[in-house]
Amino acid sequence: MRALRGRLFHLKGSSFRDPKPEWYDDGLLVINDEGLIESLGEAHLMVPDLPDHCQVVDHRPYWILPGFVDVHTHFVQLDIIASHGESLLNWLERYTFPAEERFISPEVSAETARYFLNEMLSHGVTTASVYGSVHQTSCEALFSEAEYLGMRLLAGKALMNRNAPEALIQHDRQGRDLEATQSLIERWHGRKRLSYSLTPRFAPTSTDEQMRWVGGMFQASLAGGVSSGPLFLQSHLAENLDECRWVASLYPDSRSYCQVYETFQQLGPGAIYGHCIHLNDTDRALMASRGASIAFCPSSNLFLGSGLFDLDAAVSAGIKVGLGTDLGAGTSMSMFKTMLNAYQVCKLRGQTLSPEGAFFLATLGGAEALGLDQLIGNFQVGKEADLQVLNPVAIPLIERRFQKTTTRSEELFALLALGDERCLVATYVLGDRGVTGHTH
């Protein structure tokens, strides 16, 4: 048993509009030997009653927050981050596809997975939904490293069998693509803290046959057809206007881009779609009725000039929304920068995103979008103790700004706007201190 002492902050609400922040300026978080949260509260009330065998780790005056949840990112695009921007379809051809061809190599896959996941932890991210390449080797390496680190991870190998370079669709022509997906599901789905996501990259790169297989497998898993539990599904939707026009030309009989996924039975609980910028109210109502979620990826949307996501419309429709860094069109692995970009997108849309609301999207909201909020996202008793310890004043500018703040909310916004990985003291995964950050 272990207890962490410090300034506790988490959210207990049901929406970014009503995040219900809870603070303990001198708090105690008790973690049992299974890595689950046993209790929390004011330290001076709890410390006298701790059992003798409970180790108290004193992080005062630092902040203790839930780990961040990144609901949309591509580890196989790590090495094209900060490449000069293009529009989406040009970006794929010029940078993404060539980079992903390298992941046929087990050595490239293993080295990149190791760097990527450790970098996530060094940014306070403890759970993520991650895209692999089309190669089975990419996901084998990613799952293996995540298991070693004890992280909660959703991932899947990308499925593409048309409108992509020959090197990235050859597997399906050899009859191995869907077989490889099935093999990964059997090996990794439900193993410790790992889950498998069916991963059609997006509608234009999968044939109708492949899309039907994905939808059938997804729906069968929701009906109990997979012994280790329902599968997840991740894809892209309505990110860019050229992309939307392309989909319309490929599916002229479909009412909309979103309707394509509905036709192939790919909307449902556990399905999370990246971007969803160019949707109408009918599409949002459809997604909400099926229980599909949205990954809001403001950094990459701004970088590629794809458009401004309508957060208010999505949440008003009843859709769960989380934040995604969307590496490598996203220009940072930092959820601080992603939250700031989300705030900026909302401002450009004439909408309001409070600092508490932004942290909600990055923690509990992300957990809800992935359907994992019974396990992670805040410090509710019984949840897994994934958390980060932050020293906001490790950055002198934040320390200076704090001297002028008068409320917790002002401090939180200053941290959101000015913070980065230099603030990280430690990341805990299932109650174990796994990463020591840039401050001590």
Question: Could you walk me through the main structural features you see in this protein, from its secondary elements to its overall organization?
Answer:
The longest helix is centred in the first third of the chain and has 16 residues, at 106-121. Helix 16 runs antiparallel to helix 17 (408-418). This protein has helices at 43-46, 88-101, 106-121, 136-149, 166-173, 177-188, 208-222, 241-250, 257-263, 281-290, 298-304, 311-316, 335-348, 355-362, 364-369, 396-402, 408-418; strands spanning 2-11, 21-31, 37-42, 55-66, 68-74, 125-131, 152-156, 158-159, 194-200, 232-237, 271-275, 293-296, 321-323, 387-390, 424-429, 432-436. It is an alpha/beta fold and 440 residues long. The chain is globular. The strands form 2 sheets. Strands 5, 6, 7, 8, 9, 10, 11, 12 and 13 form a 9-stranded parallel beta sheet that branches. Strands 3-2-1-4-14-15-16 form a 7-stranded mixed beta sheet.
The biggest beta sheet reads: 9 strands, parallel
Instruction: Give the strand content.
Output: 15-25%
**End-to-end gap:** 23 Å
Helix amount: 25-40%
Structural class: alpha/beta
Please outline the helices and strands.
Elements: E1 2-11, E2 21-31, E3 37-42, H1 43-46, E4 55-66, E5 68-74, H2 88-101, H3 106-121, E6 125-131, H4 136-149, E7 152-156, E8 158-159, H5 166-173, H6 177-188, E9 194-200, H7 208-222, E10 232-237, H8 241-250, H9 257-263, E11 271-275, H10 281-290, E12 293-296, H11 298-304, H12 311-316, E13 321-323, H13 335-348, H14 355-362, H15 364-369, E14 387-390, H16 396-402, H17 408-418, E15 424-429, E16 432-436
Parallel strand pairs: 1-4, 5-6, 6-7, 7-9, 8-9, 9-10, 10-11, 11-12, 12-13
Antiparallel strand pairs: 1-2, 2-3, 4-14, 14-15, 15-16
